[in-house]
Design brief:
The chain is an alpha/beta fold. The chain has one domain: Spore Coat Polysaccharide Biosynthesis Protein SpsA, Chain A (Alpha-Beta Complex), CATH 3.90.550.10. The protein has five helices and ten strands. A five-stranded mixed β-sheet has the order 5-4-1-6-9, with helices on both faces. Strands 8-7-10 form a three-stranded mixed β-sheet, with helices on one face. A two-stranded antiparallel ribbon has the order 2-3. β2 and β3 form a beta hairpin.
């Protein structure tokens, strides 16, 4: 079994306020990736910041963990998620500010060869969700700062399975105009 983790502990600095609680096409931004996982039979966790009002979201079947060190960068959330998945065959990572990730895209990623690092891409840009097998977890624990898995992926390019995922797999909300 795998663990699916939504990373939602960012500070929304470029956005100017907590973006995950903003309305995006009829529902709160963070609710989109939560909903993308609802019909997927995996253990689910949300890694949130202490400033995020989690009561705004429908988090049934999700465990919620507060990242007390979120100000130290994305790597802290990735490491929390990976440490929670140590008894799993791998981890599926999604970002809380990516509302166009669909359940079908999630299913496609987790249906592939789980011995490889798996992710969709578009126009040569790595997208989400990203599946990481257990064998890379130790490397993740050496990450620091505001970095995700790029360094690990670059080191293991011959162990990657990527496919065209459409522009949805790379769309994220950074600025207020992205919400329109």
């Amino acid at each position: 079994m795998i663990l699916a983790a939504i990373l939602a502990a960012g500070s929304s600095t470029r956005f100017g306020k907590q973006k995950l609680a903003q309305n995006y096409h009829g529902k709160l931004l963070l609710q989109w990736p939560i909903d993308a996982l609802k019909k997927i039979y995996v253990e689910k966790v949300l890694i949130a910041s202490k400033t995020l009002n989690i009561s705004l979201f429908d988090l049934r079947n999700f465990k919620v963990v507060i990242n007390e060190k979120a100000d130290r960068g994305l790597s802290t959330s990735v490491k929390i998620a990976v440490s929670m998945a140590k008894d799993h065959e791998g981890i599926l990572l999604l970002l809380g500010d990516m509302p166009k990730i669909s359940t079908d895209l999630v299913r496609k990623v987790i249906s592939m060869d789980k011995t490889k690092i798996i992710f969709p891409s578009h126009d040569g840009i790595k997208g989400f969700p990203v599946y990481l097998p257990l064998k890379y977890f130790e490397e993740v624990m050496s990450l620091s700062g505001d970095v995700g898995l790029r360094k690990i992926i670059a080191k293991h390019l011959n162990e990657v399975a990527s496919f065209e995922g459409g522009k949805e797999c790379i769309f994220d909300v950074d600025m207020p105009q992205d919400i329109l």
